[in-house]
Every structure is written in C-alpha cells, then in structure tokens.
Amino acid sequence: MDMKSIYLLVPLAPLAGAVIAGLFCRVIPRWVAHTATILGVAIAFALSCVIFKDVMAGNTFNGTVYQWMTTGDYKFQVGFLIDQLTVTMMLVVTFVSLMVHIYTIGYMQEDPGYNRFFSYISLFTFSMLMLVMSNNFMQLFFGWEAVGLVSYLLIGFWYTRPTAIFANMKAFLVNRVGDFGFILGIGLVLAHFGTLDYNIVFDKAKSFADVTIPLFGAGSSVSLMTATCILLFIGAMGKSAQVPLHVWLPDSMEGPTPISALIHAATMVTAGIFMVARMSPLFELSDTALSFVIVIGAITALFMGFLGIIQNDIKRVVAYSTLSQLGYMTVALGASAYSVAIFHLMTHAFFKALLFLGAGSVIIGMHHDQDIRNMGGLRKYMPITWITSLIGSLALIGTPFFAGFYSKDSIIEAVQLSHIPGSGFAYFAVLAGVFITAFYSFRMYFLVFHGEERFGKAHDTHGHDAHAKHDDHAASDDHAAHGDDHHGADEVHEEHHGLAPGQKPHETPWVVTLPLVMLAIPSVIIGYIGIEPMLFGDYFKDAIFVNAEAHPVMEELHHHFHGAVAMALHSVTTAVFWLAFSGVALSWFFYIKRPDIPAAIKARVEPIYTLLENKYYFDKFNDVVFAGGARLLGKGLWKGGDVAVIDGLIVNGSTRLVGWIATVVRFFQSGHIYHYAFTMIIGVFVLLTLWVGRV
Amino acid sequence: MSGTPLLSLAIWVPILAGFTVLATGSDRNAPLARMLALLGAVVGLLVTIPLYTGFDLTTPAMQFVELAQWIPRFNINYHLGVDGISMLFVILNSFITVIVVLAGWQVITSKVAQYNAAFLIMSGLLNGIFCALDGMLFYVFFEASLIPLFLIIGVWGGDNRVYAAFKFFLFTLAGSLLFLIAQLYLFVQSGGSFSILDWQQLPLTLTAQKWLFLAFLVAFAVKVPMWPVHTWLPDAHVQAPTGGSIVLAAIALKLGAYGFLRFSLPIAPDASHELAGLVVALSLIAIVYIGFVALAQEDMKKLVAYSSIAHMGFVTLGFFMFSAIGIEGALVQMVSHGFVSGAMFFSIGVMYDRVHSRQIADYGGVVNKMPKFAAFFMLFGMANAGLPATSGFVGEFMIILGAVKFNFWVAFAAASTMIVGAAYTLWMYKRVVFGSVGNHHVAEMTDINGREFLILTLLAIGTMVMGVYPLPFTDVMHSSVNELLRHVAVSKIQ
C-alpha cells in the first residue's frame, strides 16, 4: 500500500465507522456499533503511527485528493499536507479518540442513545483529522465547521434537557461569531494571494509583509498581514474559547463526559492553537497581531483560572482549567513560541483527557452526582481513579518531571524572554496562573478523594440549587417554551439521583479504568521525552516558521536549556515551582486542615465572590445585549418595517388609495347638474387666475 | 440524439402529461391521476438528463437550439436554447416536479387531478422560461406560469389564501408590466427583433440602458424577491400548500434572478455597472434586515420564507460583483437553495400534516416521536445555515470570498449571515425538535413513512453531493459565465 492510500485511509476509517453506527443505529446491536467505530479509530491510530515513522524518516507530503471546485482563476481542492506538525496532531487525536471510544463502552452503558453516540464521536474524529491534515484554507474551514457541528450534536446529546439544548445552541452560535472573522480572514487571503493553498500562500507571504490595504476608507492604511492574522485569530478565539468568546465552553459540560474529554479538552478546542501554529509564516509578519494574541491569551489564562476556584461541579472545575490552559497555549503563540504551544497542546491533551475521564469515572461511581461538595474520601473506594487523577492533577499544575511541567515551564520562560508588546502583562498572568491552577486543581482533588466522606447523605438541596440556576438560564432564552422547560427539568432531577444513604461509591469497570491508565502514562513521561526534540531539536523542521531575527525567543530559550533532568532539578529554585507548591499547600490547609476557612473568606469578600459566581457577567451581558437585542431588532424590523410600513402603508395603503380615489371620482359623477356646474365654475376660476397671473 | 428536440420535450412532456391528468376528471379516479402525474414527472425528468450528459463544456453559445417561426408578422419565434447558466435549472425544475408530485401523494385528497395537472403544467411553463431565447416567448411563459401557482395557492391554500393569492399575483403582474414595456422598446430599437440574443448585442445610450435596467429591476426584484418588494412571499408561502411552497421557493424565486443574468446584465451592461451599488445595497439589506426579521418569526413557514429572501440576497449580491466567483457562487446558491428550501418546506409540511399547525410554539420535542425525521431536518437545517459538506455552504462561501475582493465591508455585512442564519435556524430547531414532548399533539406524532423517507432522501442526496463535490455543477457554468463577464465588461454606448 502506498503512502497516499494510507493518508486517505486515516480519516476514512473513522468515517466508515461513523456511517455504519449512524445510518443503522436503530437496527444494529450495540456491539456492532462500538466494534465498528473502535476498529475504525484503531486503524486510524495505527496508520498514524506508520505515517509518523515515515515522516520522521523525512518523507513529507503535500498533494491533492480531489478537485473540489474551480471558478474563474481560483481552484479549490481537498488535499493533504502531511508534515511533522500534522502527524503530531494526528497521533494525539487518534490516540485520545481511541481511549475515549473504549471508555464510552462503560460510560454510556445504560444510555438508549449508545449507537448514536459512537457514530458522533467517530464522525468527530473524521472531521478533526480532515482539519489537521488539510493543505488549504477551504478544507480547514470545512473541518473547522464540521467539528463544530459534531460538538453541537454532542453537547445536546441528551436533547430533552433544557440546559443541554440551550448550551449546544450557544456553543454553535458563539463559534459562528468566531467563524465570521475566520471566513473574512480567508477571504483576504484569497483576494490577495489568489489561492487558498498553504504552500503557495506561505511562500508568497514574505512579499506581502509591507502591503497595506485601505480598510477604513481611502485615506487609511492597515497592514494586510495584521488584518488577515487578527481575523483568522478571531476564528481561533471561538474554537479555542478565548475571552470574550469563551462563554460556550463551561456550558458545553452539559454533554456526556467522554466528549468533554475528547472534544472540549483534548482536541477540538485546540484546533485554534493548531491553526495559528500552522499559519506561523503569516503571524510572524505582524507584531501587532502577535500582541493581540498574547494579550487575549493572557486574559484567558488568568481570569478563567479564578473562576475555577469557586466551581462545585466537578466537570466545570476541569472546564475552567481547560480554558486557562488554552490561554497558556495562546500566550505561547503570541510569544512566537509555536512549538512550545503545540508541545503544551500535546501534553495537555493527555493529562486533561485523563482528568476529564477520571471525573467521569467519579461521576459513575457517585451515580451521576457531580457536586464535589457531596464527595470526599473516594480514594478508598476508587483506587485506580484516585491514582490516575492524582497523576493528572500533578501534571496539570506543573510538578517537575511530569508532562505538564516541561510544557508549561517552557511557556513561562518563553513569555519572559519575549519582547512583544503585552508580554509583560502576559508574564504576570501566566505566573499568577500557576498558583491559581495549583489551588483549584488540588481543591478539587482534596474535596473528591480526601477528607470527610460526605456522600450518601440527603444532599438534594445542592443539586436542586444548581439545576434551578441552569433552568433560569434556559428559560430566559425562550419564553415560549417556559412550561416545557420545567417539564424537562423534572426528568433531569431524576437522572441525577446520586448515592442513596448508606450506599458507597464503587470502582468503575475495566473499560473505564484502562483508558485512565493508558492516558496516565503519557501524562507522566511525554514531557520528559518530548521537550528536547520538539522544542530545541529539529522535530518540526519547516512545519513551523519563526522569524528568528525579530522574535529570537526560541533561540534564547535554547541557551537556557541544559537537558530535561537539569530543567526539572533547576526548577526547584524558581518562583514557578514555589507558586505551584504554595497553591497546593493552601488548598490542603483550606479544604483538609481547616474546612471552615473558605466559608469565612467567602463571607468577607462577598462582592468578588458574586462577580466570580456570575462569571464576570459575560453570560448576562450576552443574553441581554446580543440575544435580547437581536430578537428585539428582529421584532422591530418585522412589525415596524415589513408589517407597518411596507405592507401597511405602501401595499395595503395603495389599495386603499385606489379605493379613496374611486370614492372621490364617484363624487364627481353624482348625476346632479349643480355638482357639474359648480365644478365648471371652479375650473374656470382657476384657469382665469393662472392666466391673469401669467400676464 | 442530436436531432431530438430535447428542450421542447422538457417543456411539452409535463404540459401534455398535465392535460392527460386533468382528463381523468373527478376524485373517483384519484389513484390513476396520481400514477399518471408521477409518470409524467419522471419522464419529464428523464428527458432533461441528456441536457447534462450531452452538454458541451467548451462553448459559451446556446446549445440544443430550436428555432421555428411563431408569429411571423411581429417576428416572434419559437426559439429555444440553453447555456451553462440556464441548463441546470431545467433539470432542477424537472427534479422538483417529481418531488412535488410525491409530496402531495397522500396529502391532497380533493381535486387530485387538477392539483397534479397544475403542477405539471407549471413545470413545463417554468422550463419554457429557462429555455426561451425569444423575448415574447419568454414573456408568455413568464406570465403563464403565474396562473397555475395562483390557482394552487388560491384553491388548495390555507384560510387566508385569497388575500395571499391576489397579493402574489398583483405584485408580480405589476412588475412584469414594466418588463413588457421594456421589451417593446427593445423591439423597436432593434428594428423589429424579439431575439434576446440580438438585444444583447444592441448598442444603447446610457440613459436608455438605465431606464431598461430599472424596468427589469422592478420586474425581477419582485420575483426574487428583493427588499422592499418581498412582502408577498411570506404570505404566499404561509397560505400555499406544501407542494406550492416547494415550487415557489425552489424554482419560482429563481426566475427573477435568472432574468438579471439573461436581460439586465447583458442588455444594459453600462447601466448595470452604474447602478450596481443600488442592487448591492438592496441585497445587503435583504441579507441583514431579513435575517433579523426571520429571527422574530413564530410561524415556521414564515421563518423559512424570510430565510429564502435572505439567501436570495446572496444571489443578487453575487451577480453584481462582476466576478466569476460571484456569479458562479450565485448560480450555485440558486441550485442549492432549490434543494434546501424545498426540503425545509417539505419538512414543515410533514409536521403540519400531523399536527395541523405551523406555529413554533405548538411543537417541542418532536425528536422523541420522530427520530428519523429529526435527523433529516437537522441536515437541512444545517444546510440552511450554510454548513460545509452541504450545498448551502458552497454558494455562501464563494460569494463571501468573492465579496472580500469586491469590497471588504460588503463581505463583512454579508458574512453576518453566518451568525444570524445559524441563529434563526437552530433556534427554531431547538424549540420545535429538541426538548421533552411539548403537548399531546406532539405525543401523537408518528415518524415519517416510506414516501416521506424517499423524498427526504432524494433531497438529502442532492444537498450532500453538491456540498461535497460541487465541481460537476460549476464546470458547466464556466464558459457561459466567462463569456457573460467578457460581454458585460465591454461598453455598449456608441
């Protein structure tokens, strides 16, 4: 089999699985659905390994699969670009996807939508592979939207839950705001480069470095590269959930946990990071765009971390940590440390998928209770979940020798070395983020696995509180369906029963724990293995372009690097390590030693707490201004424009006018002689006046 | 095959089939009428297939030309021919006719023969419009096609059908009177020719071109429909039976757009350039303004009707950017809209047949009772929102990309449909399909039957194929579109 067929088979194998499980989801037994899809993804993973070996041997590929469309001088095709960056993403995507597929067998065991779920996640794998393997902007956009669609379908997987179907629509629409910028960026590329092929665009990019376009009228001139890159990055902000387009990600936790791990942590949300790294030849030409990137990333990294502190839903804590980590990756992009961003993307994919799947395992053990205040002491009952979650948390907070340490520390150092405007703020943000990450990660860890066993008690009030809040949210979206929402909400409560009094949590079956173990391994070692080749070796070769003269961050970083072991040992003398350590220590003190303190603090800083509780009021603002404003505008234009003016005044008005003229004319044809005589006299009078006036 | 008058067949097969169906008479023979109608529609589709397979991609000239004298005294000819601009619409129309006959199969139970006859005759007349190369022949088909649609709305429509039918009729008739005057002017100017191809070569002063352009604009804008002469469309859709809505959206709206390419641009190229700003502005209003109006709709058919107007805004925008990507994007959008809007109206019809309401508020949780239907409806909803891998994406993508080169802020306004279009479609889908079962009407709904499954599958195949592989659709357009652009670039003022 030649390499080209292998490339083709990688996305097609999961697609075949998705089609089998999807089209026949109502007739085939469950084992067929999961066997077909797992087989498809397993083939994709195995072939990705083959391709990896081939690429490492120096064989990259750039070619067309089929001509999609031609028009005028433009040619659009579906094609693959297989290089080091692509194959890295392919490995991450197929491996995590395979783990999630296996895990799903256990997690979705009792769900009536079992086959449908497998179909969706395989379809997602296909779409994501098409996205990363693309060799042109058109197919990139294609995959970009397709992963968004699957994400939409999966967030709303439990379609009777009002919160879920609100969240999925919100996710889709917020992503569309990003895509709005994205497609305009692609449009600028096509308009100025005349093609959407990566290779040609990247080759020509240098000659466009000083081109300006009169974007705001004839007098103004905006750098073409700045405009293009910022517009493309707006797309990335939607998909990779950067402030202010981050609002959909926490709500996406309404979806089943396996997809939170696969889509909303490991792969899809990193598509934006991947895209910017892929576009590095363009972004390198605009310092303004890089500044924009680094500032947005820094805001996301810091402020989303704060929100993680006050969450009580186990999945939402992990979701906010994902947001914060995506901010870290974005900061790395802004500092021109693209390879570091991809490196962190990879390590994060493993440990964050692990944390999510671990959280899912806890949720199964707790019988679908997700409130960490109802947990505690689970380590005794769920040992594998406990150990693997601990590994994931240690990796997340950047414990030396763990995967997350190498990638995150490199980001922090890179930002420190960067001279891009905004890097000072970014450095502060990522540094403070270390402490916050450590604090909320271990807050969750301690509350779940250590301390007092709080489960099996009457805890209904918590659950109902949480749900009531969500219901308000959904209801405000949609007044018409208000009654239905409550109907739906009842069912939700039934699903979230949690543990009955006296019941104990239990360890989950092997299909769930095996993926945990399989993900825990790279969460420990991948950083140690990967840092030297990926960051300082020639792993990426030409796949990532850095203008070393203008942005010498990576070179300077290389000077400071003296091997993976030395880096870990040296870290003990840095502020980063002690920040993380004090975060862990503080959370231990707060949640194990003196559990009364958090409540006291909460009472003291009520306004800040309220601000965080309301997520900085982003949701409320969007709800009122954008959602409400759009509906109001629509109603206004409809009732005011179409109904009142066009139809009322002009259309029906003209029929009325015809009627009125008829009435008036009828008046003149009354048949009474004195009417005619009177009219004639007036006529003569008018004519005389005019005649006299003329003289 | 070369000697076969394919275009005449495309026109007269459905019309003759229509009269045959009519001859079956009363509803006692309804099953026979249905079978004959289906036979006529399928044969009508089959005779158009050679138009694609035998199409010469290399020439911009008219193909499959037929020419015969009709009224020699006024030099009016029976002159037919198709090029890369019109050919796809003949096939699309014949395809939609099959869909429409199937769509009314179990639903229409009174005046079955007349109903099917009206659609078949209309199908032939619509094909006539796309094939006519003689101005007067075009006009006859153009006006005659109003009558069946008027009857379909007026006889088989909803409660307020008479108002809607008259509004539809008067709007379009008012527009086409100016069109007639323009034609007579051209007849005189050209020294007594009704050939559209002659008119396209006719030198004209800028003033004359402007008047002609405006006359055409009024006639075609009503048909498209463009803002602000669009208000007949939501009323007509709401009152029309499902089949009527499908033809109206899938084919009838394309007539106006087609008119721009056949008349406005080539006959008045200088005025087209001069007044392009006006059309672009109206198109953007249609996209943005109507998008928001669609968001506020509570009636599903009105919502899709407004979304049709917004989508047609893309078509007129694409035309007046004077670039290949714009015009071909607009043509792709027209074909795609045929599949997608047809499917959307059919889907709404499927639900209406069960619950007898078009109000969004009367639904909720349809997926619980109709999972197969919900999957199809999701596909078409996504196509309506322009998602890649569906036909809805291709045209919008091309036009937005083309617009960036034309003018960034035009593209900016047009691209807003990415958000608004998704918002009104998905919000409707959420309220209608997702959620728990809303009321006892929904609880009694049954999933789609074999006939409905077949129709939705046919439309889904069209939507998906065009989304994944649009090349076969755009390939046939290139020669004609490039020739049109070359023609429009040359001034006619002498």
Structure description:
The complex is a heterodimer of chains A (695) and B (494). Chain A has 695 residues and is mainly alpha-helical. Chain A is built from 28 helices and four strands. Chain A has a two-stranded antiparallel ribbon. In chain A, strands 3-4 form a two-stranded antiparallel ribbon. About 5% of the residues of chain A have low confidence. Chain B starts with 5 loop residues before the first helix and ends in a 5-residue tail after the last helix. Chain B has a two-stranded antiparallel sheet. In chain B, 73% of the residues lie in helices and 3% in strands. Chains A and B meet through strand 1, helix 5, helix 6, helix 20 and helix 27 of A and helix 14, helix 16, helix 18, helix 19 and helix 20 of B.
How much strand content do the residues of chain B show?
under 5%
Instruction: Give, in spatial order, the strands making up the sheet with the most strands of chain A.
Output: 1-2
Strand order of the largest sheet of chain B: 1-2
User: Which structural class is indicated by helix and strand composition of chain B?
Assistant: mainly alpha
Termini Cα gap of chain B? 43 Å
Low-confidence stretches of chain A: 460-495
Mean pLDDT of chain A: 85
Number of helices of chain B: 25
- The whole-angstrom Rg of chain A is 30 Å
Helix content percent band of chain B: over 70%
Content-based structural category of chain A = mainly alpha
Tell me the number of strands of chain B: 2
- Report strand % of chain A: under 5%
